Amino acid sequence: MSTIRTLEHSTPSSIDYRVYDDPEIFALEQERIFRGPVWSFLGLSSEVPEENCYKSTFVGETPVVLVGGKDGALHAWVNRCVHKGAKVCRNARGRAEGGAFVCVYHQWAYDATGALRSVPYRRGMVGKGGMPASFDIKAHRMMPLRVDKVGDMIFATFSDEAPDLRSFLGPAMCRAIERIFVRPTKVIGRVAQRIEANWKLYAENSRDSYHGGLLHLFYTTFGLWRPAQDSKAEIDEVYGFHNSFQIRKPQQAEDPQKHKEETARPLDAMTLLDPTLLELRQDIGDDISLSIQSIFPSVVLQQIGQALAVRHMIVREPGAMDLVWTYFGFQDDEEDMTRHRLRAINMVGPAGYVSVEDGEAVEICTDGIKGPDGHSLILMDIEKAENPTVPMGLDENAVRGFWKGYLKLMRAGEGQ
Amino acid sequence: MTGDRKMEGLAAAVDRFNTHYVYVVDNDVSNWPECFAEDGGYHVLTKDSASEDLPAGFLFFERKPQLIDRINALLNASIYPKANLRHLIGACKIHEATGDRIKATAPFVVYESREQEVPSVYATGQYEDEFIRNEGGELLLLSRRCVLDNDIVRTMMALPL
Ligand code: FES
Ligand SMILES: [Fe+2]
């Protein structure tokens, strides 16, 4: 089936399975999404805290370097030497002395903005060799991206057509980001997991509250599930492909029996010997205990109790992605608060009690969709989709929102 | 007993403990918490984070009851690929021995064999350990910090390293 037909067969509630594994779709995504009119996450302000600090990362499959510039400016450029294409910045993170980035291959040197500044033996030696007289250093630079930030989250885009970052995110998403970054933050650790699945399966997973209490059995096994918690779901106003879920601190205990009736799995009355990891502390200054925000295309900002993290999807190939978790706290955290964050982090990440299953869930989708053509059924609450106030876990509105925006971008230029 | 002889004796005791540890994690994982003292800690993080003094990693447990909770969750609640893990621990190095406390390190490798797949290396790294002795004189972990060489793992992290 051709790429375009595969896309045409798909609707936000029914995705042709080839959309996940077709290499042509993957190539088209690089062009229309990752290099298209979309802002992609690069890193946190605290990862480039000072001038000339850098972080190498990716936008789609393109290696991109984020650099702190003068007076708080931020620069991002494609990590590709203009000489022969070598990767100029070879470290994941660091500080470039004097703001110089030097390609190790033939030592062409660039400044923090990615502009070419010097070329060895440019004029040859004793009148022999060297670059042609017409070669103009100033005419060359590594490809720049537009960079901007909201809260401490730094994004970049290749596109001149992309709206400004705040318009791309919409007011509700900006509010949800800024709610977290109330004080200066610091990174407290990083982990990553290689997931052998298409990135969109994980993008759906992070927007899918339906699976929360059904796949992640930690809460139900230990009798901690509260089906009627006070939750709120928001979708961005413009595209509908960003979303956030929030849960308020429970006001009173609920009946876990209620959940048991709805699921096939038994509810054992196991108890946690040491529930300190679930303790909620005063932190951000409101009574929201959980907030998960998925920002199209490739980042999730989360607060689960005191576990603050960004999850960055690094898109490797049609069937593989890395999920990089960067944990952070506030610079003014006391040691005891940092310790409590470490406890709360046991809930999340590749090993976490309520997320250890997600990698496996999207990998079994990858295995299962091989073979005959087919499509998904994303129908939960579709008839009342306009109503954004259904309790978490009973709808798939945010997943359909992802696809609505995705399909629109992918069909751009096809007369849609 | 000379200092060297004493160190050799301690190293032999720690190596014996590690032989027991790999037996337990690979054959009898529900007893894994029994390798730890009552306030025994278990912490898994990357070498990359450790070298920058960043404390957060994959897991952070401070007491044995939390390790029992972990095993209960893994055996009763969590869903992860069916796999055999195989731990290999190299000879230890003793760094400090004062009173009944021993600080030691040992390199480790964990292989993973999933159903119908060829085996792969899941993790390599170094245990940074502190031991105490129980009343019977046996070593128990007061803390095991698993510092991973790899900054990324395949799919997830479930069973103990
Ligand atoms: S490839 Fe970079 S200097 Fe030659
Ligand atoms: Fe999940």
Q: Could you walk me through the main structural features you see in this protein, from its secondary elements to its overall organization?
A:
Chain A is an alpha+beta fold. Chain A has eleven helices and 17 strands. Chain A folds into two domains: 40-148, 3-layer Sandwich (Rieske Iron-sulfur Protein), CATH 2.102.10; 171-411, Naphthalene 1,2-dioxygenase Alpha Subunit, Chain A, domain 1. In chain A, strand 2 (53-59) and strand 3 form a beta hairpin. The model of chain A has no long low-confidence stretch (mean pLDDT 92). Helices cover 24% and strands 25% of the residues of chain A. Chain B is an alpha+beta fold and 161 residues long. The interface between A and B is large, with 43 and 35 residues. The structure holds FE2/S2 (inorganic) cluster (FES) and fe (ii) ion. FE2/S2 (inorganic) cluster (FES) is lined by residues 81, 83-84, 86, 103, 105-106, 108 of chain A. Chain B: Keywords: Oxidoreductase.
Total domains of chain B: 1
- Name the helix and strand elements of chain A from N-terminus to C-terminus, one letter apiece: HHHEEEEEEEEEEHEHHHEEHEEEEHHH
Report helical residue fraction of chain A: 10-25%
- The helix content of chain B is 25-40%
Number of spatially distinct domains of chain A: 2
Here the CATH topology of chain B equals Nuclear Transport Factor 2, Chain: A
Radius of gyration of chain B: 16 Å
Proportion of β residues of chain A?
15-25%
Q: Which CATH-level-2 architecture of the largest domain in chain A? A: Alpha-Beta Complex
Keywords (chain B): Oxidoreductase
InterPro entries (chain B): NTF2-like_dom_sf (IPR032710), Rng_hydr_dOase-bsu (IPR000391)
Family (chain B): Belongs to the bacterial ring-hydroxylating dioxygenase beta subunit family.
GO molecular function (chain B): oxidoreductase activity
